[in-house]
Amino acid sequence: MTLKYLIQKEFTQIRRNAFLPKLIIVFPIMIMCVMPWVMNMEVKNIKVAVVDNDRSTLSQQLVHSIEASNYFIFKGQQPTYRDALQEIEKSRADVVMVIPQDYSRELANGNQPQVLIAANAVNGTKGSIGNAYLTQIVTAHVNPDAATLQAKVSTLFLYNKNMNYKLFMIPALFAIVMMLMTGFLPALNIVGEKEAGTIEQINVTPVSKWAFILAKLIPYWIIALFVITVCLLLAWAVYGITSAGPIALVYLLVLLLALFWSSFGLMISNYSDTMQQAIFVMWFFVVMMLLLSGLFTPTRSMPSWAYATTYVNPMSYFVEAIRTVFIRGGGLSSIWHQVLALLGIGSVMACWAVFSYKKNS
Amino acid sequence: MKQFHSFVIKEAKHILRDKRTMLILFGMPLVLMLLFGFAITTDVKNVRTVVVTSSMDHLTQQAVDRLSVSEYFDIVSVVATPRDAERLIRGQKADMAIVFAADFASKRSGVQFIVDGADPNMAQQWTNYATGVMLNPAGGTVNSKMLYNPQMKSAYNFVPAIMGMLLMLVCAMMTSISIVREKEKGTMEVLLVSPVKPLMIIIAKAIPYLVLAFVILIIILLMARFVLGVPLAGSLVWILVISVIYILLALSLGLLISNVAQTQLVALLLSAMVLLVPIVMLSGMLFPVESMPMVLQWISAVIPPRYYIEAMRKLMIMGVGIKEVAREVLILLGMLALLMTLALAKFNKRLE
Amino acid sequence: MNAIEVNNVSKSYGKVKALDDVSFTVGKGEVFGLIGPDGAGKTSLYRILCTLLLPEGGTAKVDGFDTVSQMTDIRRRVGYMPGKFSLYQDLTVQENLEFFATLFGTTVDEGYDSIKAIYSQIERFKDRKAGALSGGMKQKLALSCALVHQPSVLFLDEPTTGVDPVSRKEFWDMLGDLKDRNITIVASTPYLDEVRRCERVAFLDRGKIRGIGTPDDILTRFADVFNPPGIEHDKTGEVKDENVIEVEHLVKAFGSFHAVDDISFTVKRGEIFGFLGANGAGKTTAMHMLTGLNQPTSGTGRVVGYDIRTEHEQIKKHIGYMSQRFSLYEDLTVAENIRLFAGIYGMDDKEIARKTDELLERLQFTEHKNTLVASLPLGWKQKLAFSVSIFHEPGIVFLDEPTGGVDPATRRQFWELIYEAAGRGITVFVTTHYMDEAEYCDRISIMVDGKIKAMGSPAELKQKFNQPDMDHVFTYLARQATRSSD
To answer: What domain range includes position B73?
Structure first.
């Protein structure tokens, strides 16, 4: 019963705050409208410079086929390899291709000429993808057989047929929005009451720990539901992207994630003395969980010790499950494992949040 | 001078006594460096692969063997129909399937990749690699050379980015909070009314953070060099000089924020939103600027870390001369002049 | 030459006029009192004089320098202790003091004589962090920091709030020494005995100077504010022979330090029990144990029949509490605060609505039902906080310095509320530093160094120690203290 009054109080306080209501509304909108454009790791516009030491018809053909490819931006020819490298240093080129002097002669003799491709690999993904595409073009040119072989290989991309990076990133954005909205705000909550002194007044009332903590958690779950609705609507209205799987599962996953983050935030808040501390500690954990969640990079590429952390990282379960539902159209049968894990970690964290709150010391 | 000295000491004590914040401040670079150095990679590795074939003949077997010995692919199962493979992928038991046609042996044709396309970048790379492994056994005509980063380590790309982020965070966020805290607690009133010049208060406040930032910078550089094996290819002097410019710039930003914010909470949120989010998202730290739409590229043009990170990448990793980063350095200097003038001009010597 | 000249100064925040055409002068070496209720405009005036704010109209000169154009000269000559002054919590006592000494271009040794009387009380705790000191101790340290240098003009904005009577006397003795050195002092205070130690006082109310004159002159002219008639304590409430609080050999130790050192006492139902003691004597710690916020180290205690060690959550159902720090939610309205706390104690909506209206009517507060607590004056907040703490009709209410920082008239109204509650049978357990309030209690205990040194009715105590009033009784006992802080 007391829960009702406590929850009402939390909502009134959030509403009265000069800043929070705006944040809750504007932040998801901003994230959804801007981030899909930003979080785009698509590699395109690779700039190529060519050094043609052969200057034969055949070598010119190869150069033309690169020029014609819409994958590359052709940055012209350079007289020497050294000049071409300077182009890379000046960031005017990303990849350099060097055609050897005896390119056409070797080809005519049936030998394999050695073409050098040097890619700026500071950004590894860009370097390797540029290298791979250029290699394909060269191989096709040198060895027409390989070209026909390549043509015989077909690829079927499941689920994300248009190779749309936004579709991949939008469910991940849900995770980020949830983390920021239901993680950081509770982290500031109790420590804020400590700094204001009101916590002492609450501590001398007979209110139970569970009621007090639950009253602080529930508003964030409701905020989570509101925010995810906004996000889903925006994804549909702005990008025409909707969930392939059942929408109810999306909500279920979001609630489970909110359970974890809000409890985690309150737990940090209980242990902190100042808001600054709470924010810093929270930030530390957020960054780690985010980076190790597989949201940006595939978890399977990690070394085994890092991969082991994904077993306790709720973000990792969430990201995997939401992508299965949202992109791959999976049902409960494909994600029950993650749902259970999230529920387990969330419940443990909620209990921790309650027990770390001390009414009597 | 004595006042100045005791001011700096006092400020240093504030920092040193907050153990948890200290732990985070020094723990953060360590953890970030280790994560980016060892854990976070976009390498193609351990791709769970299903082989779909109705008859495992000699040539198919050969192709499968080639796949399974490569470190890229793990053959998790062999099934008879593409439908089974799709079911495995949907259930997240596999990432891709390679379908061999029944007459693969005779005509060496008819290979189809069925790929989980949820992540387009990785899907693309998996097909590239699989094609490479299966069809180019001889190595071929192309001699590839990965400049600056022959082992394709992500760390090379991220070390400068981590520097850009942490230095900004420590200097701007911490300085602004520490000034606003004094406002909030009422001690600023006493400091202002004292004979000490306001400018001196500010400089004294900034110095410990400058030192702190420098220590963190050194930690990052040492770790990069000796733990991650990132070569510090360029001139160390210039790396430090440009970093100092950047640190000063961050301090000015922190000062500006402290002028606007009245409470620690606002200062925190302002720093987080005005600094952290744009830095991480728009500075090219994680996501390449050139893939963004024009509007966002314009916005990113005014974000200082973008130039710092770019300059550091060129200097540290590519080892270019100072001439090649002159543009970035000039832009940083211009921004520094602007922000510092603004911050000092706006600094409130009174309470309003 | 006058030390301070204020001519027609005005200042407003939005529509609110904080200062309206204020003029006065203060002579060199004068001790000038600036008194008035909370929100009268005192703080704005201090800030203008310290060059922290710009006046909208009028001019002000301090030590002959203009506050607008000669900021630097003034800042070199004045000292200022803001009302909301908190020290650096993470620095030790000594570090705080040394920092402020250096800030003002002097050293602790040089200024030691002028702060000795107060600093010596906390000096043995010089290696403790300021954040770990009790409220009154912090104030003493703040005073030491403000006085360690010798400016030509000193501004003190309610410097003694929360400080015990003995230390307040010592503080004003120190100000007397400064005056002898020709230092001009402008101070504000809610304590009448301190007002009387000024040479002249100005009464400021709602941004206007209502009168300037000798303390006696002002106190009689505005007697309705400063010198309200004492309250008749007609014994409506019946003291029953039944103990609501029973404490035996209670100890709270922090390491080797015994904040509360073996106290035993009882409080009877319906009593108003005054729990007095110097800063750091252990009052707040004892109260925290009784209200179930802290566990005792040893000893036993029962409050409303429940054990304080094991049944603290039961106790919490039957008590009310109003803390030293103001304890309502500032961002909720009056009605919302009442509703929240009533809801916590298990009342239903209908009952809450009815009792809220009743209460607000009784307090004549109905028009402010939907006002944010943050925008109420301090006196009103305190009355409201008290009313909320007894809204659920507890058996006993604990009040920790409930009337800090408000003027006598408001304090009197507050005590009327206390009597009303006692009349309804609620036991009142109150700490205070106002000795006139001590006289209002049925029974008093005085704590010194963690032990209870005296207990009895005010009349009994006065007789026993052969002193004319409670103030003297307190001073007599507190001067025997050997330790000075918790």
So the answer is: 47-135
Residues 6+ apart with CB under 8 A from C392: C320, C341, C342, C345, C346, C347
Q: Is C68 on the interface with B (CB under 8 A)?
A: no
Within the 204-263 window of chain A, which residues sit less than 8 Å (CB to CB) from chain B?
none
From the list B116, B177, B320, which residue is nearest A158 (CB)?
B116
Q: Is C428 helix (H, G, I), strand (E, B) or coil?
A: strand
ipTM: 0.79
Query: What value does the mean pLDDT take over residues A324-328?
Result: 86
Residue C484 — very low, low, confident or very high, per pLDDT cuts 50/70/90? very low
**Which of A114, A131, A152 lies at the terminal end of a domain, its last residue?**
A152
Look at residue B194 and tell me if it is in a domain. yes
Shared domain for B309 and B168, answered yes or no, is yes
pTM as predicted: 0.84
How many whole angstroms separate alpha carbon C245 and alpha carbon C316?
A: 14
| Orientation of helix B120-135 relative to helix A124-142, angle to 10° | 40
Domain stop point among A100, A128, A152: A152
What are B59-74's pLDDT values in tens digits? Answer: 778 778 878 887 788 8
Q: A329 is in which domain, residue-wise? A: 2-39+161-355
- Give A129's pLDDT tier (boundaries 50, 70, 90): confident
Q: Which residues of A touch B135 (CB under 8 A)?
A: 146, 149-150, 153
Do C177 and C145 lie in one domain? The reply is yes
Q: What is the pLDDT of residues A20-34, one digit of tens each?
A: 888 888 888 988 888
Amino acid at A3: L
Specify whether B114 is located in the same domain as B187: no
In a shared domain, residues C198 and C262 = no
B170 to chain A: which residues are within 8 Å by CB? none
> Looking at the predicted structure, is the pLDDT value of residue C37 above 90?
no
Contacts of A204 in chain C (CB under 8 A): 291-293, 316, 319, 321, 398
CB contact under 8 A, B113 and A155: yes
Question: CB distance B186–C54 less than 8 Å?
Answer: no
CB atoms within 10 A of CB A186: 28
Whether B186 and chain C come into contact, CB under 8 Å, resolves to yes
Q: In total, how many domains does chain B have? A: 2
Highest mean pLDDT among A86-90, A311-315, B195-199, C100-104: A311-315
Average pLDDT over residues A226-244: 90
State which residue of chain C sits closest to B191, comparing Cα positions. C103
Is residue A360 situated within a structural domain?
no
Nearest to A204 among C316, C348, C372 (CB): C316
Look at residue C33 in the predicted model and tell me its pLDDT.
92
CATH number of the structural domain spanning residue C277: 3.40.50.300
For C326, the closest of A8, A197, A203 (CB atoms) is: A197
Task: Examine residue A270 and state whether it is found in any structural domain, yes or no.
Answer: yes
Residue A326's alpha-carbon distances to A169, A214, A335, B124, B126, in angstroms, are 11, 30, 12, 20, 22
Number of domains into which chain A is organized:
2
Distance from C-alpha of A147 to C-alpha of A125, rounded to nearest angstrom: 25
Residues A148 and A166 occupy one common structural domain: no
Q: Is B275 within the bounds of a domain?
A: yes
For helices C378-389 and C408-423, the axis angle rounded to 10 degrees is 10
Domain-embedded: residue A206: yes
> Please, which residues 273-332 of chain A have a Cβ atom closer than 8 Å to chain B?
274-277, 279-281, 283-284, 287-288, 291-292, 296-298, 300-303, 306, 320, 323-324, 327-330
Q: What is the rounded distance in angstroms from the CA atom of residue C164 to the CA atom of residue C167?
A: 6
Structural domain includes residue C325: no
Q: Is A361 part of a structural domain of the chain? A: no
Same domain? A249 vs A327: yes
Instruction: Report the domain count for chain C.
Output: 2
| Residue B138 pLDDT exceeds 60 | no
E-assigned strand segments in C217-305? 243-254, 257-268, 272-277, 298-303
> Rounded CA gap, B261 and B271, in Å?
10
Question: Is the Cβ of C87 closer than 8 Å to some Cβ of chain B?
Answer: yes
